[in-house]
Amino acid sequence: MSAYDRNNVFAKILRGELPCKKVYEDEFALAFHDINPLAPVHVLVIPKGEYVSQADFGATAPPELATGFWRAVSKVARDLGLDTEGYRIVANHGPNGGQLVFHFHVHIFGGRQMSHAMRSMPKADSQG
Ligand code: AMP
Fold first, then answer.
1. Measuring from atom 3 of ligand 1, which residue has the nearest CA?
2. Enzyme catalytic residues
3. pTM, 2 dp
4. Can you list the domains of the chain with their CATH numbers?
5. Backbone angles phi, psi at 118, to 5 degrees
6. What share of the chain is helix, strand, coil (3-state, %, to 5)?
7. Helix (H, G, I), strand (E, B), or coil: what is residue 103?
8. pLDDT for 128
């Protein structure tokens, strides 16, 4: 995976150079609404640090940041009222994972029944 690009869109949001619809912020994380929501609730949570992806974050983030980040993910989902009905979290990693923005982020999807997407994933040898 390539090096962290400080001009990625989430880096600009973290620096306040681009606006976002903020949901939550603390010393470890920033959460904001996805600009192109795919569910009634679609919020992104990003760590305050330069991490390209889940692989990078999981391997190199200091323990305090890793814990603080995941606690923020849980808090955001809870504060959005999603705990009872449930929600989905997704982190896309790299080209095969469909990652488009190369600052590690977690998607929180909620507010409707999710399809069990893993049942409809293409077979490893298909072109679909
Ligand atoms: P991915 O990297 O595939 O996990 O997805 C990146 C996500 O970022 C997509 O769901 C986009 O809609 C979202 N996104 C891109 N630019 C912005 C922005 N300026 N504000 C909020 N969400 C964004």
1. 99
2. 105
3. 0.93
4. 9-110 (3.30.428.10)
5. -65, -25
6. 30, 20, 50
7. coil
8. 43
Quote the pLDDT of residue 125: 62
Helices (H), 5-127: 9-14, 54-60, 63-79, 94-97
Which of 69, 109, 74, 59 shows the shortest CA–CA distance to 89? 109
Tens of pLDDT, residues 54-69:
999 999 999 999 999 9
| Averaged pLDDT for residues 30-39 | 97
Assess whether the C-beta atom of 100 lies below 6 angstroms from ligand 1.
Answer: yes
Kindly state the DSSP code that residue 113 receives in the 8-state scheme: P
The residue whose CA is least distant from atom 13 of ligand 1 is 34
| 80 Cβ inside 6 Å of ligand 1 | no
> If you average pLDDT over residues 109-116, what whole number do you get?
92
> What pLDDT is attached to residue 122?
63
- The stretch 6-12 carries a mean pLDDT of 98
> Ligand 1 centroid to 34 CA: how many Å?
6
Q: Among the residues of 18-126, which ranges form H helices?
A: 54-60, 63-79, 94-97
